[in-house]
Design a protein that fits this description.
Elements (H helix, E strand, L loop, with lengths): L5 H16 L8 H19 L4 H14 L3 H5 L3 H8 L6 H16 L8 H5 L6 H11 L9 H11 L10 H10 L4 H17 L18 H4 L19 H14 L17 H13 L4 E3 L2 E3 L3
Antiparallel strand pairs: 1-2
Helix pairs in contact: 1-11, 2-3, 2-8, 5-6, 9-11, 13-14
Length: 298
Amino acid sequence: MPQPTPSARLSVQLARWYRHNARDLPWRRPAFHETYGAWGVLVSEFMLQQTPVNRVIPYLEAWLARWPDPPTMADASPADVVRQWANLGYPRRALWLHRAAVEITRVHDGHVPRDVDSLLSLPGIGDYTARAVAAFAHGDRHPVVDTNTRRVLARAIEGRAQPRATSRRDLKLMESLLPSSAAESAVFNAAMMELGATVCTARAPRCARCPLRSDCAWLAAGMPDTGDVRRRQAAYEGSDRQARGAVLRTLRDAAGEPVAMADVIADWPDQLQRDRAIDSLVADGLAEASEHGLSLPR
């Protein structure tokens, strides 16, 4: 009897592990897909960008309860959207999601498109999100590569401690490993992401619990330190991001009324940073300046 190829063996090992170890997350439940369809997946993917799962879940549930489909969200104002986003972080995602809802309603009759190119044409959607929606919402066969997947690929396949600087190569590598079946490829995508998030973690991988330990190139090589070229995120405390967040919090608390410019985080210790934060929020469309002061976008 012919032996399974390494990629086929990888798929079987991961699928078996995933069935018994996958976290119970809202967007993985059948009821979630029946209720919100591709829109629910799209919203979850926007929120999960650079944000931990446990922070996303309550925001996602509240968001979909208020805006269960693209047309209802398209009717909302940018101010409502930014206010609902609250302190989830990286608030430009809220505006992009709103613009995507408007485009979906206008161009696609309120239905999230299925093909990757149409998804990529929507505001705020890149390679990962487009393929995640196509694979997890529509069940199509596409490689889905996020930060966690890239780390598993780097270690298990390439024998590296951390991913390389660029990700296009990882997309091709992931595609070469996908099972031919669309259903099996969706499980493989999800399992690779889950493995990277819970076992093959960046700082303390749990190799003894890994279903790929017998085939992992990095483990076989003795877990060498091959360097880390990942871009480091600047500290939040004292950063421009923190100042921007403080300005937005002030505007959200103002209940739609403009805040006099002099009163916007007036006690911020660095006035130049405060002004820079205000200017950048206006430039990003997250705030509007007028003779009456500063407010959320209308």
